Structures are given as C-alpha cells and as structure tokens.
Amino acid sequence: MTLMLADTQSKEEIENRFKKIKEWLEMAGYKMSNTKGDPSVTRISLMSVYRWAIKDGWLKMLNIAAGMTMGNKKGYRETEQSGICLCTLHGSKGLEWKKVLIINCNHDQIPSPKVIGDEGIEEERRLFFVGMTRAELELYITWHGKPLEFITESFPKVVELAEEIPIIEGSEDMCLQ
Description:
This protein is an alpha+beta fold. It has seven helices and three strands; from the N terminus they run ααααβαβααβ.
C-alpha cells in the first residue's frame, strides 16, 4: 500500500497500479461489466481516474478521487424527496436521484465564462459529468440555442436528432434524454 501513496507520472507504473487495483476490486466482488457486457460503473470510474493519473500524475488523481468519494453532505433522511429537489452541480456531489434534469446547458453557460485555461475547462467537464451521473434511471439535459460542447462531444448523434425535432410553439429549448 505504501507504494500506492508515492507520486509517479510514469505511464508504465500507473498502468501497473491500476491493474493491481482492478484485481483487488474483482476479488472484492466488483464487476467490470454489466449484464449487457458494457463497462460497469466501477469500470467507467476506474477508466476516468486512470486518465486523470496519466494526465496529471498519481497524487493529483488521488486528490480528485478522494474529493469525489467524500460521501453525502446530508443524512439519508434529509435527502429523501417526495417532490422536486433543486441544487447546483456542485451541490449534487455524493447524491443520487431517480430522475435528474440539468437545465441551461448552453454553450455560453458551461464552462463558466469565468473559467481560465485548459485545467479550468477540464474541471468544468468533470463537474458536468458528476451532474450527469447523479441520475439513477433517467437523465434530461436542456439547452437553448447551441448546446455546450461537452454534450456535442459526448452525444453528437443525439444532438443532431434534437436539432431535427420541431420546436413547440412558445419554446425554443432542446432536450436530451
């Protein structure tokens, strides 16, 4: 375990560490693919943190991963909802809902105009991913005009289809489900 706490930027060393982590997770009963044969949430998470480690180094990746696993900010009873819960993308960390609606995903809103540099944009991309992964069953994303580039990059065919949908009178919003 001590070796796992030492910083490295060596791609070979990072790959070896992730192989070991994957083995540990599988021995603990975590599945790397779902019943359809697609990558499981565990595998997707592992691939994400692997990319962070390759890009920014081992210790930076550990800090990012630790921040994501801090758990709920509120007790379970406080987050149980029978109605609608409104929160920011930041506020959604560690929480989950059956249905999630992310609104105002316009190209001029996300990433925030205040963000500076590629690191800031990547942080906004991760934050948007956090928001999307809060949905247990259904995810809806709306935008007005041009969608944010993260949606266009991740779901180009869906964006094309959404642009072909006739606009309902009185509304110019698009919806990605």
